[in-house]
Amino acid sequence: MAFDLAAYRRQWFTDGTAARRDVLAGIVVALALIPEAIGFSIIAGVDPRLGLYASVAIALTISLVGGRPGMISAATAAVAVVVIPLSREHGVEYLFVATILMGLIQIVAGVLRLDFVMQFVSRSVITGFVNARAILIFMTQLPQLTNVGWHTYAMVAAGLVIIYGLPRVTTALPSPLVAILVLSAISIGMGLSVHTVGDMGKLPKGLPSIALPNVPLTLDTLRIILPYSLTMAAVGLLESLPTAQIVGDMTDTDSNKRVECAGQGAANMVAALFGGMGGCAMIGQSAINVTSGGRGRLSTFVAGGFQLAREGAAQKRGGHVQAARRSSPARSASRSVSGTGRLIR
Fold first, then answer.
1. What angle do CA 193, 198, 200 make, to 5 degrees?
2. DSSP structural state of residue 192
3. From the centroid of its chain, how far is CA 26?
C-alpha cells in the first residue's frame, strides 16, 4: 500500500478547532499518565522513572508511526506484570534489551500481517475485554479510598460532579482537565491532607538520554530474554489491537492495524533505548482522550510532549545538566544493582 501523505497530514491537522481539542485532550491524558506510569513501574519492580520515560517515548513515537490516530500508548500493567521475574533476577539492563527484542517481534508481526486474526474476534469478546478492563481499573482504585480522611471523599465527589456536570453547561474545555485544575488548586491552596502523585514515587528531574543496554550480546542473553520478549510482544498486541478497534468504534473511523503492529514495535524499541520499560495501547487513557475531544495524532503527541516538557522544566529548575552524561538517571540507578538482581524501589 502506497503512503498517502495527504491522508497522513489530515490525521494531524484538519482545522483550528480540532487542533485545540487535540491539545487539550492530550494535556488531560498526560496528567493522568503520570500516576499510572509510576504505579506500573512499581508493579514491575523497577525505578518509577522507567515508566515515566517509557510513557514519553512511546507516546511520541506512536503518534508519528502508529496506525490508529487518537489512541494512547504508554507503559502498561499488562506488560509490567510479565517482566517482574526478569527485572528481579537479572536487572533492568536485561529488561531494556528484552524490550528492544519485543519491538522487533512486533514489527515482524506487522510485516507478516498477523493483525489479520483480529477479523475473527467477535463483538462479544471486545465487550468482555472492555468490561474486564473497567473492573480491573476500578479495583485498583479502591485502596486509594480506604483509611483516608473525609477530604478525599469530598474531592472524589466534587471531581465526579465536574466531570459529568460541566459538559451539560459547556464543552469549551474538557471536563477532566477542569476537574484536575480546580481540585488541585483547592487542595494546594487549603493544604488538604490528601494523597498526591509524589507519594507514589519520585518524579524524574531530568531528561532521558539514549544509550544501548549494557548486556553481553551472547546466546545466553538471548536464552534469558527471548521468552519474556515473545510474551511481552504478544500481550502488547493483544491489548493494542482490540483497543484500536474500540477507538475506531467510538470515533466511527478506520485504522491500519498492520501499521499499528509495526508502530508499537518501533515505539517500544525507542522507549528501551531511552531507558524505559515496554508498553502498549491503553484502553482507559484512549477513552479519556476520545471523550475529551482528542481524535488525531496531535493529541497523542501532546500527551507525550507535555510530560517531556515537565521533565525538562524540572531539570532546568534543579540545575541538572545531563547533556554530557551517557546514561539517564534511571539507567545509572539500575546499574548499581543490576548485578545483584535486586528490585529497584
1. 100
2. -
3. 12
